[in-house]
Design a protein that fits this description.
This protein is of the alpha/beta class and 340 residues long. The protein contains twelve helices and 13 strands. It has two domains: 175 residues, P-loop containing nucleotide triphosphate hydrolases (Rossmann fold); 144 residues, Nucleoside Triphosphate Pyrophosphohydrolase, CATH 3.90.79. The chain has a six-stranded mixed sheet with strand order 8-6-10-9-12-13, with helices on both faces. The protein is elongated and about 65 Å long. 34% of the residues are buried.
Length: 340
Amino acid sequence: MIVWLNGAFGAGKTTAARELVQLLPDSTLFDPALVGAALHGMLPKERLAQVEDFQDLPAWRRLVVDTAAALLCEVPGPLVVPMTLLRQDYRDEIFGGLAARRIPVRHFVLDADETILRARIARGAATDAEDTRAWRLRHVTAYTAARRWLTADARTVDTAALTPRETAEAVARAVRAGAGACAIVQTPEPSGETVAAGVLLFDEEDRVLLVDPTYKPGWEFPGGVVERGEAPARAGMREVAEELGLRLAEPPRLLVVDWEPPEPPGFGGLRLLFDGGRLTKEAARGLLLPGAELRGWRFVTETEAAHLLPPVRRERLRWALRARERGRPLNLEAGVPVGE
């Protein structure tokens, strides 16, 4: 298990974490900032200059998950992780990676009023460099902006009037009571190539439906991995029913087959997109969302989708829409048509 202490700089995460490891039996402190420091020592200066924060490095987010999993193979108890995590897509990526490894996360936000946070950061002036202090103050504003989704996602502990020990005691009581559990879908990591089926659904204006998964960054099409012995079109129908509460009357029509090459740590495989047809306004209003798996959904134009989808899925959608216009499926390799 991981007990993740989130919150702005000045909330008391590190001091509370040190106290918490004394209260939770067999627990171990894991500071992901050490992973960031290691990357700063290994990556070229040119790459480091491209990011403001080590959290923006995909390698950091991947290594945090891998390191946490490796540590839990070495120690008996939970990991206590004090780390500010304000971007929801980074939270999705890291917590989704942990969930894929069957590592449960208890998510806590150590909260305090903005004036208190700024005062605490200012008190650290004697030991902090000026640029470090300014950087931390900027992140107080970012925390205020992220506070709505954070407090909805995690158990909040108000630290304004608490000592680090009292904060740790409050978190420990909540952990023992089962609070702070992060309800995120646990999608097993593939051990080899997979076949996945996505279904494109359209509204009466011919906009396409995208969903926002909680367990990985970026928007996605409704769908999922085809199970052993399952027909891909039927898998798409099953996923649409599970994710959106919508039951398609008949198997959807194939639009594209895309071979996704292996790119470590992924194994690649076949990605199929089907045409699920148009939904009436009444049918769209009846769409449901399982809170643990999807955060939301929306109908978007192709142009709007280009700003929401990762590059690989963006290209897949582009060719799926062209196939729909032409009335025949397309065969893709890494998002590029072949045999045309």
